[in-house]
Amino acid sequence: MQFADINGIVVNYDIQRAENGGPVVVFVNSLGTDSRIWHHVVPKLAGDCTILTYDKRGHGLSDLGSPPYAIADHVADLAGLLDHLGLTKVIVVGLSVGGLIGQGLYATRPDLVKALVFSNTAHKIGTAEMWAGRIAAVEKGGISSILDAIMERWFTPAFRSPDNAAYQGYCNMLVRQPVSGYAGTCAAIRDADFTEEAKRIAVPVLCIAGSEDGSTPPAVVKSLADLVPGARYEVIDAVAHIPCVEAPAAYAALIRDFLEAVE
């Protein structure tokens, strides 16, 4: 756990550097989560890769900044962190809003990007009306007021078993995020549309979907893959919106296979 002042906010990050000079993989987490969602995937790739995880603004241990945000704010934070660490030509693995951040990074700083993994995301996610409703709900009743509905999209019924302590842990992760950071990032997603930018991506891309994803179903992820020239599209069975938690071995295997192809 380390901290850096990036664009006037403190960003919490962790970097594990590979001794063999392997690829640099940057994980960007989803709305309402923090970098701990990657903790079962990172060990499966560590040693062969330099791995960077971090908490985007308004989440985890990073500062709030000034919500509401634009995706450009999240993109600038990631670019600033990479510059701070002297990292270029990275492979960005972006989950949900993390995928939008990855698209924005490539659109504005292609010098930083070697390849992209778009996980459970799209070129545009949801509608303005949907996000306005989500923002109003959490501002009125807190994140706990939407907990059950969100968890039904995030995880399969099997994972949401009352006997699964990990499920309760991820519920805690969601409701303990700052309301203003959550709502501020909802606004960023609401206003983001990378439809045209996706068509101009000229680095290797892997798109990953979860077969049971209620937030960005496979057809939505496929719509992004169809826009990106030469993109590879894969579906992980029996997982929902956060496959890095429900199926970390399958998730890491797809990423490792992709990294080998990129190399």
> Compute the gyration radius: what is it?
17 Å
Strand content: 15-25%
Strand segment count? 8
> Which structural class best describes the helix and strand composition?
alpha/beta
Question: How many angstroms does the end-to-end distance come to?
Answer: 29 Å
Overall pLDDT score: 97
Give the overall silhouette.
globular
Uncertain segments are none
Named CATH topology: Rossmann fold
Percent range for helical residues? 40-55%
SSE pattern, N- to C-terminal:
EEEHEHEHEHHHHHEHEHH
In CATH, what is the homologous superfamily? Alpha/Beta hydrolase fold, catalytic domain
Biggest sheet, open or closed, and with what strands and sense? 8 strands, mixed
Number of helices in the DSSP assignment? 11
Q: Can you tell me the CATH architecture?
A: 3-Layer(aba) Sandwich
Which strand order do you get reading across the main beta sheet? 1-2-4-3-5-6-7-8
Topology record:
Blueprint: E1 2-6, E2 9-16, E3 24-28, H1 42-45, E4 50-54, H2 71-85, E5 90-95, H3 97-108, E6 113-119, H4 128-141, H5 147-154, H6 165-175, H7 179-191, H8 195-198, E7 205-210, H9 218-227, E8 232-236, H10 243-246, H11 248-262
Parallel strand pairs: 3-4, 3-5, 5-6, 6-7, 7-8
Antiparallel strand pairs: 1-2, 2-4
Helix pairs in contact: 2-3, 4-7
GO molecular function: 3-oxoadipate enol-lactonase activity
Domain AB hydrolase-1: 23-127
Protein name: 3-oxoadipate enol-lactonase
